[in-house]
Amino acid sequence: MPTGIPPGPESPAEAGSTTAVATQRTPERPADRTSMGRPVITARAAATFEPVGRSVATARAFVRDTLQGWGLADIVDDAVVLTSELVTNAVVHAGTSAEVLCLRDEDGVRIEVIDRYPERELPLLEPGQQPASPDREGGRGLLLCAALATRWGVDYTAADKRVWFRLNLPERPVGTRTAGPALPDNALPLTDTRVHVAVIQVDRSGAISAWNEDATELFDYPAEQVIGKPLTDLAAWPHTPGTGTGVAEALRLSRWEGSYGMRGADGRTIPVYASHLRVRDSDGEPSTVCLLVREHERAILQSPPRVHARDTGTASDGNEPTAADPFEVFIGSPAPDDLDGLLQRTVERARDMLDGDAAYLLLATDDETELEVRASTGLPSARQRFARVPVEAGSGRYGSARMPSVHEDLTVVPGAVPLLAGTGMRSVVTVPLKVEGRLTGSLGVATEAPGRYTNEEALRLQFAADRIALAVERARLTELERLRRGSLSFLVEASDLLAGTLDRDQTLALMAQMTVPTLATWCAVYTVAEPGSEPKLSYVLHEDEDRIDNLKALLAKVDPPEPVPTPGARVWTAPTDAAHSAALRTSLRSVVMSEEDHHLSPGTTLATAAAVGGETVVLPLVARNRVIGMLTLGKPTDERFRQEILELAEDLSRRAALALDNARLYSERTAISQSLQRSLLPPELPEVSGGVEVDVIYRAAGEGNEVGGDFYDLFEIRDGIYGFAIGDVCGTGPEAAAVTGLARHALRLLAREGLGGPAVLERLNTAILDEGARSRFLTLLYGEMRPQEDGSAELKVVCAGHPLPLRLRQDGTVEPAADPQPLLGVMDDLELYEQTVVLDPGDVLLCVTDGVTERREGTRMLGDDGLADVLTTCTGLTAGAVAARIMRAVERFANDAPSDDMAILAMRVPE
């Protein structure tokens, strides 16, 4: 296969090739050639299409968008017609995939259609041969090539067949362009007294790099405030997020025209018509130049519609329309699955076709009982997107949107078309969109002048609606499928996030963050502590963080919604009414707010009103048959929720309610556990006479939701004598906590009765066994400490099944300070004894629970020997420093979180 431009019959050498030669309309100019005899290719684009019928329309869209992006609007129609016929031959008749290659040079474009069926030869025209009859079944694509192309031909190889044609740009004097006819003054488009054309340049990343004075006049933003910000922060794209082409995608196209909204400094959305052109500077850096005017001044920028005047024949297979089909002329070439682009293009073309002032399109809900506003042009901002009207209350002589209708003057029949109430429109024609007899939507065109439309216009509009109804329904079903899949993915992710936390505040934050901006512009969560109590505003979030404080202040003024358990979303008008009232007072006074509104800044009141001025809905948070809160979702001015979003929000609210209730129960349980755990530990350590240093570190395992386990105590028995204890109850939970409380309080009581250590532990053992089935065995180290006048300290200790205490001498030697004895809570008759240990100045006594010595990393365990090794490095340290070093060593021994409670009691006699 040759590379670059395939050889054509343009020289004697090429004439001997296998290329079929068509008749030539105009000779090629010398400018078409370089010194090597070939055009200089300045741009190239290629795409491959599968052998299915819809590929023909996709190929037409590819060629149209490519040539318009290259600025070749003068030859777009011819190129699209020829491409449509040649691709049809390949993918429909030959049944193979087709590759379309567009080559641009200085004087025109060459388009090649390559298929994989070289055996199927095309009928050729010899020089001077007359074309066959146009009534014959085959060969019409070649007739069109002969009629429209500058040159054309066919190349055969063993693997494929390449049909190509060339279109030269028409010659025209410099400075001349296409022009419209002369019109009377009263037929000219309406504009403001001073027309502002905003010129905005956007860099490769989508950030604004240039902003002219007219842009400031239109949107009230000074250049220094917006330079560097993404254009998407200011653009209010009318399409649903996740469907169709968005601003970011439009900025990447070579050329794009269309309508969308720009948010002004006051928060209101300004409808604009924009023309985007992608350029590059001398360094090759791409950027996009955007020209914007007010939407009603679109005629200044809008390219004139180009309707091919030639008779281009019929569709190749009876199903796929050609480029001159009214469907193609009517809507242009949006992407096949771009529903919003298709609908917006439809209303714009419908308005232009009937020379109307406004147009709108509504889609029917699944049950066909309501119509939902999906696209409009020329209507005031009060016509909210996704607003709904009943089908039977729609326009029409028969009171239904299922029939075409013409209203010569709406003032005669007030309310006939609810969507147009208060817009100033007088004459309107509406037609239904139907697929297989089923109502799928309604298309309407209106004008401010009465008596403008008759049945003739209704027939024209109905013909266009019939041609587009199936495409709209296909795109709508594609969008619904995408939304359903996206909804499932969203709910799965939301469930995972909500299940990943049991913290109440974090659950509230997740609820709001998942809804903003995916489902709503702002969100507020109210919680109900007890049945019958007043709902409390617990969390507020807005997609613009600068408006959160003002929104919170506004909602604080409004009575909270009623905690009604009825499922589903219900409209709540209080925030919108409060915002509009505050904005009205500010507008009337243009000064500082009244005293009751002192918390709302006058400079932001209008913006806040615009931000919350749309539809607001409330969904109950019901868990375990009780309303525990409300999820409030809001839209900015002139926006409403679509039904699919409300259904998704309802599913989310059920999951969020259960997660919030689980977090509440967990928080209550944690609070109870922590309170009980604190009651099992001494509130504070007493001051020991003689200067003996005592320090304790206690570290509970887990997340604080269990009680029991390890405990410690240090208390004064009588003057100069102190009791200390450190123990570990088997297990956790209420039973272990009961033994812990029994042990700590019994130790104090028995010790202060004057009993010695063995007697204290023997009676404690009896008390534990008396608990019966609730009893737990207990390891306990108990001792009495008497500071001596010579600076030492005498200790009498009993170690009942507990890890042995370790004594650190000043010379760094470590030795056990007691012998092991039986643990408590197992045997009735215990014979315990106490041992006396004297701590000299500088000595340290270290007592720990088994959570320290049994710290594990894989098969390794710290053990008694490892603890002793760490303790040998603690000579000269204070009691607090010794305890801290031991704890650091234990934590560094393993990477995993501790699985058992740990208590460390260190006592040191000062030197």
Question: What's the short version?
Answer:
Residues 16-25 have a biased composition (Polar residues). The chain has 911 residues and is α+β, with helices and mostly antiparallel strands. The strands form seven sheets. The protein has a six-stranded antiparallel beta sheet with strand order 1-5-6-4-3-2, with helices on one face. A six-stranded antiparallel beta sheet has the order 8-7-12-11-10-9.
Shape category = elongated
* Total of helices: 20
What percent of the residues sit in helical stretches (DSSP H or I)?
A: 25-40%
Physical arrangement of strands within the biggest beta sheet: 1-5-6-4-3-2
**What low-confidence regions span 5 or more consecutive residues with pLDDT below 50?**
1-35, 125-139, 239-244, 305-336, 393-399, 590-600
The percent range for strand residues is 15-25%
